[in-house]
Amino acid sequence: MAIVSALKQYFHAKYNNYLIFKYVFWHTRWEKPLYEQYPAEYFDSNHYGPFFSVVIAPFALMPDWLGMTLWNLLNALILLYGIFTLPISDTYKKIIAWIVLHECLTALLSFQFNVAITGLILLSFTYIEKQKPIKSAFVAIIGFLVKLYGIVVLAFFLFIKRKITFILSAVAFLLVFFGLPMLISSPEFVMKSYMDWFNVLIFKSHDNEFNNQMADLSFLGFIRKTTGIYINVLYGCAFAGIILIIILLRNKMCRLFPFRFLILAYVFLCLVLFNTNVESPTYILGFMGIAIWFTLVPKNPYTISLLVFAIILTSLSPTDLFPKPIREKYVIPYALKAVPCIFIWFDVAYRLLFDKFSTVKKIKMA
Q1: Rounded Cα distance, 277 and 73, in Å
Q2: CA-based diameter of the chain, in Å?
């Protein structure tokens, strides 16, 4: 799927995102501002961190058709590796892979790094479960310096037994990866680029809230677009964070793997529901949360209906399988893509706050 999607976009000349990524390397190499618009090369602008110039470098040096194909393949392999290293049975791994399949395709058609980010977060969680803090810190810092999403590993900090090792490893990787782009440019350019990145993310968040109809497909965006009530993203994040803190106070439940695994689903859903920068291809993250949730909950008409609701409205609404008049008149203007995830997020939060997990099957492998 990764290979076919890349070649399909190449032959239809629909690979603008890949050009943005490719030129992050070249602009770093030439020491040109990373967050300016370059209409002669692509439209829109880059929003990834300077460290991404090192990540994309091998692909940027290749012919476009080969670079974008291998780029998509790498993203898909990281995601698959993240899924199939989870400490759960092979059956559940396959269920998760099938549930996220279509959202993965949506992201691959846009050459999004979100596919790999999803895999990196899974790996970070798995390495914590297997008490491998150095590896967990390694993949978390990669995700953090590219798109900040790697920071969510802090939700599992209490579950790390060797906390000092994790902290020292994270600091070491942060310093090394922070400085790697300097090898292809200069320290002054990289330092300025990190400051520019911070500023552009703030601007992009504000712009998405008020000027970009295709973005802010979040819980807060849904509220604003349907009711006109504006809620600052920081308040939304604080609300989700307070709930998570209360959840983590359930010390006895934290000892249970299904409880910790459902926290991972909660975190994935928060990444799309409390994020003004979320667009349709970002929902691979939210759908991973849905897939994990579905492996844990009882299979009854209520949970199956929620999953089907999510597949139809969240995953299929941007496609030609969904009625175009409904999509253009209601789904896009009112950010309805977020609605199934909102319902499932509330379900996840309720279970984490009140469920005894006595009926949850032991899905962890021996």
Answers
A1: 25
A2: 60
